[in-house]
Specification:
Layout: H1 14-21, E1 28-30, H2 31-39, E2 44-46, E3 51-53, E4 72-76, H3 83-96, E5 102-106, E6 109-110, H4 117-126, E7 131-134, E8 140-144, E9 147-151, E10 159-162, E11 168-171, H5 174-183, H6 194-204, H7 208-216, H8 220-235, H9 249-266, H10 269-275, H11 278-288
Parallel strand pairs: 3-10, 4-5, 6-7
Antiparallel strand pairs: 1-4, 2-3, 7-8, 8-9, 10-11
């Protein structure tokens, strides 16, 4: 019987290749590979060096056992990336990992102050997942129309995942990995992510310094944004300061309807199964903010 391959085994050149190929060498590995590594009981979180030290046992398999699909390497480019830059990053990731991992690349959007009704309508229809954006003053935001939250730039400081080989791969703070699952969807916390989030919380929030950062420190706005998504999606309640100026009652109602529709779809196997096919993934790329 063929032994399963692990993601860490094909990631040893990832940092070197991305650093060499990208005009702006900043990137952050996020998503399932990082959540799997971070939540493992033997993984060490080194606050002083901003390093996540993971053993091979903390690596997920390349091929998912449940459906036979290849795992994604989700990478954030923490700046407004062009399509060409995103394409270079995607091709580099797949070549570097010997085409064993499927690359998904997410950049930042330019924060728009437009009050144009057409733009708002388009955002209301298209946005089902949150967007990262940056304005012309260099301030960072999370957006999920009509919600918007400024977040401290320090929350995007570089951390490193240390592979069993000793090689490093750039990532984000453990709190960024945890909170991404709470703020990414208009439906709030997805059913399939509940166990993952619980495991991450057990690991990450057991460290007092990180718990403090989430409750009243630099990551508190991320937690507030998660609360805003949940309350508007579940009860139609919202904080006035959480929505962009000019938001109408119809905007708020559409958010509420979309949140419930997506939560219903996510609770049934067929829509979820279709979303995980290759064609489904391609179709959902624009809605997920993939660059």
């Amino acid at each position: 019987m063929r032994q399963p391959e692990f993601c860490f085994e094909v990631m040893n050149r990832l940092d070197l290749d991305l650093t060499n190929q990208l005009e702006n060498p900043k990137y952050m590995l996020v998503g399932g590979i990082m959540s799997h590594a971070l939540s493992h009981e033997a993984t060490v979180i080194d606050l002083e060096q901003k390093r996540i030290i993971a053993p091979m046992d903390a690596s997920p398999t390349i091929v998912r056992k449940e459906d036979g699909s290849h795992r994604d390497a989700d990478v954030v480019l923490p700046y407004v990336a062009t399509k060409e830059q995103a394409t270079i990053a995607r091709r580099t990731i797949e070549k570097s990992t010997k085409y064993k991992l499927t690359a998904s690349v997410f950049g930042f959007e330019t924060k728009k102050a437009s009050t144009d009704r057409h733009d708002r309508t388009q955002a209301n229809i298209r946005q089902w997942t949150s967007r990262r954006s940056v304005d012309d003053q260099g301030r960072y935001y999370y957006d999920l129309y009509p919600l918007s939250m400024e977040v401290p730039a320090e929350t995007y400081d570089t951390w490193n995942l240390q592979l069993p080989s000793g090689q490093l791969v750039k990532t984000i703070s453990p709190l960024g990995i945890l909170m991404a699952y709470k703020i990414r969807s208009i439906s709030g916390i997805r059913h399939k992510d509940k166990e993952k989030i619980a495991a991450l919380e057990d690991k990450v929030l057991s460290i007092p310094e990180l718990k403090q950062q989430l409750q009243e420190g630099i990551f508190a706005p991320w937690q507030q944004f998660a609360n805003d998504i949940a309350t508007l999606g579940q009860s139609h309640y919202y904080r006035q300061e959480s929505v962009i100026p000019g938001t109408s009652n119809s905007d708020l109602m559409l958010f509420f309807i979309k949140a419930h529709a997506l939560k219903f779809a996510e609770s049934h196997k067929l829509p979820v199964k279709l979303a995980h096919t290759h064609i489904g993934a391609l179709a959902l790329r624009p809605l997920n903010g993939d660059a």
